[in-house]
Amino acid sequence: MSDNGHTQSGVLYGMAIDLDKCTGCMACSVACQAENNISFRPDESNKLRSITWMEVYYLDNGAEHPDYRFSYLPRPCMHCNAPHHSPCTFVCPVNATVRDEATGIVGHIYPRCIGCRYCMVACPYHARDFNWWDPAWPEPMEQMLSPKVSTRMRGVVEKCSFCSHRLNAARSKAYLDGLEMSEVTYTPACVEACPSQAIAFGNLLDEHSEVARLAKSERAFRLLSKLNTEPKVYYLSRHPWLHNLANASL
Amino acid sequence: MDKALIPDGVKRSPFPVFAGWLLVLFAVIGWGVYAGIVVLLKALNVTGLNDYFGFGFYITIDLAIIALGAGAFFSGFLFYGMSRFFPALKELYKIINLAVVVGFVCYTGALAVLLLEIGQPLRGWFGYWHANVHSMLTEVIFCISCYAIVLVIEFVPLILENRKLDAIKPLHLFGHSLHEIMAIFALTGTFLSFFHQGSLGGVAGVLFGRPFAYRTGFFIWPWTFFLFILSAVASGPAFTALICRTIEKAGRKQLVDRSVYDLIAKIVAAFLSIYMVLKIADTLYWALDLAPSFGFKLTDFYREPYGIWLLVVELIVCGIIPAIMLLIPQARARNGLLFTAFALTCIGVVINRFVMTVQALAVPVMPFDSWQVYIPTMYEYAPGIAMLAYCALVISLAYRYLPLFPREKELNPH
Q1: Domain range enclosing A174
Q2: Could you say which of A46, A49, A123 has the minimum Cβ distance to residue B209?
Q3: pLDDT tens, position by position, A111-126
Q4: Quick one: which of B153, B155, B154, B130 has its CA closest to B142?
Q5: 3-state SS string over B292-334?
Q6: B169-180 vs B136-159: helix crossing angle, rounded to 10
Q7: Is residue A135 part of a domain?
Q8: Best residue in B47, B135, B139 for a mutation probing chain A (most A CBs within 10 Å)
Q9: The complex's ipTM?
Q10: Mean per-residue pLDDT pooled into runs of 10, chain B (414 residues)
Q11: A177 domain residue, yes or no
Q12: What structural domains and CATH numbers belong to chain B?
């Protein structure tokens, strides 16, 4: 058992996003969209209905020129490590969304989801999106879908999976290579796509990993940590206003 | 044929008038069914719901109608379970049939709307197959369906009391036998409905990522679990009494003794008062201790159109004032004040369910989120209104063809 009250292996995947390096280019978001077969509408202007696993927020410090400062904040699913359950996992009536205690990844089983949206309501980060329409891709994009990720049907919730299909592929390869499963490493699509290498990913429990080092940095903070959701996504910035904003009152 | 089905010795409106009323109800139900079919065919994109407001009108009206339908289980509990200790409660016998019908229509109506609410209605049964024992919604799914079955069982002997059906001996015996064991079903229903009402409160209260809704509590149940039970217990009998009064006004006759309303008023006064004391304590604890521990002030939670007026109306206008009115014997004795107090109690519980569903989501949690306003579309309120029309339809048919009120003949001698 971990300090958080749940069984834990030696692997706890997490992410660290350096906001001081992020240029807001949205490559992470686009890569995520392509990698995970995320559908889109001809008109995506209604952001309350669009599906974006890696949302990029534009933040500012609210000050006037010349003190005005801004930053971009990419927001994947936080894969919360709250004691016993994530905010979303324990509310799901059908066990469609569960946290894998061997990896810390919060997954979502689409064919089991009944679309009650209780998990969306429970998530304070708005990291979950509902399929309000049947998924569709314009020609010839349907032929370009990845066979490694299942598409989602209308009426179910979906969200960032930390590209767990890549983990499965890495595990298969490790098995064939005769390696220990605990030695498996992989890279999600957003990390791979970031041109400024602002995103690090790895095992938070491996003290030699970059992500574990960054998570312990003085520049590290987490979004809404005041809610005790224990997000496994860390942000890095040297700007105090960003640290304050992450847990500010309204 | 119509006359042959009407209970002996009671007077009902002429059939053409009744048929006209049914036509109106069927038209409204047809409108709602059309809207529901569109939702099922085109998906939930036709509603006002979005990724910000995952819950909306459907859940609000479900929570509200189920709270208002609590008269069935609580009247049953008082009559079948408590009247041997408190003989004054035997008076509820005169309205218990109506309470059962109201409970039946509220629960079955809510189930129909729930079918539209979920994105994959054909997977509704997964709640039993893949049940997550930690989820309050699982408790809701089990309790609502089991209690709806109990309500059907409670309703069947009443249907079998219809003059024509009662004349068929096997049906008469079956109905009589069901009557004999009704106390068991009433108490089973009480158990299920207590948990159902509570788990609906728990749905909001366990959301620790939503400081507006989140509450600490006792064991696995947040305080909202107990507050929802109490508010349903207070408003359910008031709603049953209001329906009874509406039928009396529409039929221009007395259906129950005034003493029944007096008794319900005392029951509502007692439970509404207890509820208000605990609700105010909960609100103070939430506003002064719990929310600040998450970095929120009370004023963070209220912004137009979801302003602080909602809290004032819910707690004072529709809580404290009706509780005081019902606690004063002189106010209880005046019909105008009595039924106003009942109506305010019911409005209060509807506001509470709205607040715990829609406003809980309107409040931004991330500091760089913005307030959103939820506006339901016709595809949400049409099925909701149709559900109310369905309730009116079943109650109308039950009143016309079943001996709902045992004292009706004596109170209205020809």
Answers
A1: 13-246
A2: A123
A3: 999 999 999 999 999 9
A4: B130
A5: HHCCCCHHHHCECCECCHHHHHHHHHHHHHHHHHHHCHHHHHC
A6: 130
A7: yes
A8: B135
A9: 0.93
A10: 87 94 98 97 96 96 94 87 90 93 94 94 94 93 91 92 91 88 86 90 94 91 95 95 96 94 96 97 95 90 93 97 97 96 97 96 91 96 97 97 92 82
A11: yes
A12: 2-411 (1.20.1630.10)
Task: Give me the number of domains chain A comprises.
Answer: 1
Cβ contacts (< 8 Å) between B208 and chain A: which residues? 82, 87, 227-229
Give the CATH number, domain containing residue A91.
3.30.70.20
Q: How far apart are CA B17 and CA A180, in angstroms?
A: 80
Residues of B within 8 A of A115 (CB-CB) are: 44, 118-120, 123
For residue B251, what is the enclosing H or E element?
helix B223-251
Would you call B123 and A226 a contact, using CB atoms and an 8 Å cutoff? Answer: no
DSSP string for residues in B121-162: GGGTTHHHHT--TT-HHHHHHHHHHHHHHHHHHHHHHHHTTS
In a domain, A6, yes or no: no
Q: Determine, for residues A116 and B137 on separate chains, whether the beta-carbon distance falls below 8 Å.
A: yes
| Chain A residues closer than 8 Å to B203 by CB | 91, 118
pTM of the model: 0.94
d(CA A97, CA A108): 4
Give the DSSP per-residue string, A7-67: ---S--EEEEEETTT-----HHHHHHHHHTT----S----TTTS--SSEEEEEE--PPTTS
User: How far apart are alpha carbons B24 and B95 in whole angstroms?
Assistant: 27
CA distance A173 to chain B (A): 32
Residue among A114, A158, A222, A223 with most chain B CBs within 10 A, to mutate: A114
Contact A49 B368 (CB under 8 A): no
CB-based contact A90 B134, cutoff 8 Å: yes
B contacts of A124 (beta carbons < 8 Å): 209-210, 365-366
- Output DSSP code: residue B83: T
Is A209 domain-assigned? yes
